[in-house]
Amino acid sequence: MSRRPPVAPAPSGVNRRIILSFLASAAGAIGFAVTYGLGGHTQWEGVCLAVAFAGLAIGLAIWGRRLVPVGGYVEEHEGFTPPPDEKPLTAAALSAPDSPIRRRGLLAALGLALTALGVAALFPLRSLLPWDRARPVRARMETPWGPGVRLLTAGGQPLRPGDVPAGTVVGVFPEGGTDAGDAPAFAVRLQPERFTRPPSAGHLDGLVVYSLLCTHAGCPVRLYLKGTGRMLCPCHQSSFDLFADAEPVAGPAARRLPGLPVAVDADGYLRATGDFTAPPGAGFWNRP
Amino acid sequence: MIMDRLARALDDRLRLSPLTRRALAKVFPDHWSFMLGEIALYSFVALVLTGVYLTLFFDPSSADRVYQGSYAPLDGTTTSAAYASTVRLSWDVRAGLLIRQTHHWAALIFVAAILVHLVRIFFTGAFRKPRETNWLVGVTMLMLALANGFTGYSLPDDLLSGLGLRIIVSVVESIPLVGSWLVFLGLGGEFPSDEMIPRMFVSHVLLVPALLVALVSLHLAMIVRQKHAQFPGPGRTEHNVVGSRLYPSYALRSLALFAWVLAVLFALGGLVQINPIWLYGPSAPDQATSPAQPDWYVAWGDGALRLFPPWEIHVAGHLVPAPFFPGVVLGGVTFLALYAWPFLERWCTGDCRAHQLLDRPRDHPVRTGVGVMALTFFGVLVVAAGDDIIARLLRVPVYDVLYVLRVLVLVLPVLAGALAFLLARALRRGDAARLGELTRADLRAAGRRARVGEARAVDESELPARDRPGQRIELWPDGGVWRWRYRDEPAGVTLLHHRAVLTEREAADSARLAYPGVDHVAVPGPPPPPPPGRVRTALRRWGNVALGVTLLVAALRQRRNRHPGDDGDGTGSR
Asked: Where would I find the Rieske domain in this sequence (chain A) (predicted)?
């Protein structure tokens, strides 16, 4: 209808720079498509997309800074105190004679119904807990280890005392429960004369078995410092002294690694004679 | 033409034009620090876009799956489907690794942008009335961002994230009474359960993102409704917003920022390797890697776990393990303090007024001191998360680093906070405009107690008009509409009202709202275009002079070198 005013003239060079940026962007996009089509290459794809978006960004930024007014505008701010005559009107509208919020008795009953519904809606959350397995605290107290459970290596082979050489740790798992999160343990052979405190789970001629899980936050204490007989946790640097019944000697751990009592069966294999001396891993409320 | 028609058709049905006109003319302040939140917003958009692509290839399951693909060391091995599909996604899906790495980088930048935005809001007092509700929404989004970052980090079921998940599980387990129950409720069994990956997946791609979208919308809606706060300056009052209009300038600038964010993210995603899970191997309960550091935004928690001494307490025969204090208590206190700060500050200062003008950090030394203290504290915790790396780099025992950090985490925040408090006070009381200009006398004065009855600087814009000579409002008819502008001659400021209105009365009313008490003058026609800003004028003038001189010198030199007959134009033509 109305006559449009002509487009404002652009300062010299600005248009050209913007167009060049957008062309660079298009080139980047094409480059991405071509790289993808030729079999893909993570670095080149990333660079092409970066060029495509950077071209857009530069073009738009020049456009926004050079071809349109920047700054210099003011908008009024009404503040947030409502006009004085609004408040009573709103209140009146809400509390008219037929207003639902004035029927207190009905509201109370409605509130009761909604509360009951809300509480009932919480019940299905119980299904998030496992039904068929032990309750949390009991599950946490027990591990697959127990009397007569054979010790397996990471490869699934039963272990003889002779398979544990001096100077290294061997990861061991309970037969029938190798995937359990709380079961990993390690066996290590130490010189009994260096014990400063006898292992609480006993030892077989210097061979001791302890839980692998740090008593601080449950990470596997994988780093064995051979000479000092210490196990170090890579997560938070707790270290445990194996000569002193795996007592924590530095870092944030506060409790010993639980030991596993073991014996040699008639076939010469190592078997546990019970569960760990304490629940393995991090502490919890019901831990004795 | 088609756009015109479409717009008119929509307008006829929805009556959009009054709304649209106001929305397009909305004024945004021109300060770089107002763009920080937008970086977070655009990172979030990038996260959603790249994340949707990833879900098409990721298999959220702990079931066994044989990986067969081009990464030879793992070819033919059986791992969880989550791990195998992530390796396949990285090695065998074209552009898969690019998108995965970009997603991870976007998550890091998302949280970083939220944090920097929060710091800006905190130090400028933008959380004060009426914006406390938006502060609460923002802090909630920070919490959700951290949670979603962590679940996303854990989803590939690799060795490093398995360690992280185990640590978090241990921290939750340390909660008195309900810890083990909470873990079972979350994981559906003992760690590592078969349900944990599907559940984290649902929370990572559905629950939390949906919540975030809702909260982002609420956050933006409140900003539009409440309008932006702004830094004080000439022409800026508690009753207006000064800056650029949404359309055209701010829209262009914001889109440019969006493109910048994507450009940086794709450059990082393509060129800078992040989380190479095929090197870590699949998660296994008996395996660990070293060094093991989490993503930066959970490093403060990890650092706190490392620094906290092995103190455990027994309550009536029950154990409260050590991770409870640095894990649960510290995290809880941090977010409680963030939520409570606006109300705490209002309670302490007794300041219940609404604020549209922002503080500079110096205006509120206590707040600045507390903020610097908290930032230093968390900074030391983040450094502590790398104590084993520091020890390796410096070739000192890791426990020496630990003891030094244990002292620093208590001492350094207090020192930094006190220093920030003193500097802010010196800047506020003295004449120095910047930190570099502070004199010894300023600092000495800052150390003294506040003078009795030291008056807070009176808000200049609140003074009646007769105390502010040289300011006036000019109204004029422009075709069928009215416009007005504000002029402050001594300050050299001219501000145009952001939209045309239909009547003189309306124009006068809006001007009175924006500048209460400033005299109004009706002028017959549009005034001459405002002169360019001082800096730009000076630059242009000096630029022209310099150009002229250069050309002159060049021409003279040329004339001297060449034949006398050669002509050269020696004057700057511009």
From this structure: 205-271
- Cβ atoms of B197 and B60 within 8 Å: the answer is yes
Share of chain B above pLDDT 90, in %: 69
Q: Which of A67, A92, A109 is the last residue of a domain?
A: A67
pLDDT in tens, B287-339: 888 888 999 999 999 999 999 999 999 998 899 999 999 999 999 999 999 99
Q: Is residue B528 part of a domain?
A: no
pLDDT digits (tens, 9 = 90+) for B331-360: 999 999 999 999 999 999 998 889 999 999
Put simply, the answer to whether B399 touches A250 (Cβ < 8 Å) is yes
Has residue B458 been placed in a domain?
no
In a domain, A124, yes or no: no
Please name the member of A133, A248, A284 whose beta carbon is closest to the beta carbon of B319: A284
Are residues A69 and B241, on separate chains, in Cβ contact within 8 Å? no
Tell me, yes or no, whether B165 and B273 share the same domain. yes
Task: Say what the pLDDT of residue B560 is.
Answer: 64
CB contact under 8 A, B241 and A44: no
Please indicate, yes or no, whether residues A152 and A29 belong to a single structural domain of this protein.
no
Answer whether B354 touches A (CB < 8 Å). yes
Q: In this structure, are A160 and A29 located in the same domain?
A: no
Q: Quote the number of domains for chain A.
A: 2
**Domain count for chain B:** 4
ipTM of the complex: 0.93
Q: Residue B134 sits in a domain of what CATH number?
A: 1.20.810.10
B496: contact with A, CB 8 A cutoff: yes
CA triplet B479, B484, B486: central angle to 5 degrees? Answer: 155
Q: Please name the residues between 245 and 264 in chain A that touch chain B, using a CB distance below 8 Å.
A: 248, 250-255
Residues B486-499: what's their mean pLDDT? 90
Do B151 and B196 have their domain in common?
yes
CB contact under 8 A, A252 and B309: yes
Q: What is the pLDDT of residues B371-398, one digit of tens each?
A: 999 999 999 999 999 999 999 999 999 9
CA distances B134 to B121, B141, B148, B163, Å, are 11, 10, 21, 36
- Beta strands A207-211 and A185-189: pairing type? antiparallel
Judge whether B343 lies within some domain.
Answer: yes
Two structure tokens written together for B52: 């949707």
Chain A residue at shortest CA distance from B312: A254
B215 shares its domain with B338 = yes
Task: List the domain range (segments joined by +) for residue B258.
Answer: 32-349
B510 touches chain A (CB under 8 A): yes
Task: Write out chain A residues lying below 8 Å of B240, CB-based.
Answer: 74-77
**Would you tell me how many other CB atoms lie within 10 Å of the CB of residue B458?**
9
B134-193 tens-digit pLDDT: 999 999 999 999 999 999 999 999 999 999 999 999 999 999 999 999 999 999 988 889
Mark yes or no for CB contact B180/A49 under 8 Å. Answer: no
* Residue B285 confidence (pLDDT): 87
Q: Are B327 and B307 in contact (CB under 8 A)?
A: no
**Is the domain of B75 the same as that of B143?**
yes
Other beta carbons within 10 Å of B146 = 18
Q: Are A59 and A148 found together in one domain? A: no
Across the interface, do B513 and A76 touch by the CB < 8 Å criterion?
yes
Is pLDDT of B457 > 50?
no
B495 interfacial to chain A (CB closer than 8 Å): yes
Ranges assigned E (strand) in B124-264: 240-245
**In terms of residue numbers, what domain contains A286?**
143-288
Q: Using 50, 70 and 90 to split pLDDT, how confident is the model at B10?
A: confident
CA nearest A222 in B: which residue? B288
User: What one-character-per-residue DSSP string does B396-454 give?
Assistant: S-HHHHHHHHHHHHHHHHHHHHHHHHHHHHHHHHSS-SSGGG--HHHHHHHHSPPPTTP
